[in-house]
Specification:
The chain has 239 residues and is an alpha/beta fold. The protein is built from nine helices and six strands.
């Protein structure tokens, strides 16, 4: 979707179907600025997995284990649980746009781009299998990416990663089972970007919720196999 149509579409939606803040009821986006400010934000200086001090959401030790270099994650899952459930399971896909914009604003305000000076930045949404896409009608990570891209001007590359097979839902599995379930499930297609300098590119992998990080690790392993050296994660919340 071009930026122009993105703007028009959401202007019309906003005019005819105004949202209310789920916390205070004010007519505005899903959460008004005041209520949004009240929610605790995840610190980039604490490892999301072991709580050790770090620079970019993940410590060196966990980084080796998880295969990505940094994480930019905004909320704790419990604080935005209802909105995320509506977004994923109840068909309110406009919440994707809402969270994508918030993530984009924070990315710009915190000048995260400065970490990636001299690199080409690729925004890659975690892919959904065709079968599940058909069932849900939309891939939430792509929708979030569209809004994030609109705010940050970082281009989306949603054809680079794909799923080679459909998997059972991760939510019911233990960490060990999750890894097994996902082994080799992602593939990489670089045909459309054959003139890209992969060694000097950074991938921003975008997902909605991080739980154990298994899905993102598996994506990252696949990207590294194809020559990407830097893989960072962008996510709405950590469960
Ligand atoms: Zn409010
Ligand atoms: Zn750690």
């Amino acid at each position: 979707m071009t930026k122009f149509f993105y703007k028009i579409k959401y202007f019309l939606l906003d005019t005819f179907f105004p949202n209310k803040c789920i916390n205070c009821g004010k007519t505005c986006d899903f959460l008004c600025k005041n209520c949004l400010n009240l929610i605790h934000k995840v610190s980039l200086n604490e490892c999301l997995f072991c709580k050790n001090k770090c620079n970019f959401g993940i410590c060196k030790k966990c980084s080796l284990n998880k295969h990505f270099d940094g994480i930019f994650c905004l909320f704790n899952y419990r604080d935005v649980k209802n909105l995320l459930k509506d977004m994923k399971y109840n068909g309110f896909y406009d919440i994707c746009r809402f969270f994508g914009e918030i993530l984009g604003d924070f990315y710009v305000e915190n000048n995260i781009n400065s970490y990636f000076k001299n690199y080409k930045i690729l925004l890659v949404p975690v892919p959904m299998h065709k079968k599940r896409l058909k069932k849900r009608g939309y891939n939430q990570t792509l929708k979030i990416s569209e809004a994030f891209s609109y705010k940050t001007k970082i281009n989306i590359y949603d054809k680079i990663l794909f799923r080679t097979r459909n998997t059972i839902k991760q939510a019911t599995l233990s960490e060990k089972e999750r890894r097994k379930n996902l082994k080799g499930v992602f593939g990489c297609n670089l045909e459309k970007i054959s003139n890209l300098d992969i060694e000097n590119s950074v991938v921003l992998l975008l997902d909605d919720v991080i739980t154990t990080g298994s899905t993102l690790s598996e994506c990252s392993i696949c990207l590294r196999k194809y020559g990407f050296k830097k893989v960072y994660v962008i996510a709405i919340a950590k469960a």
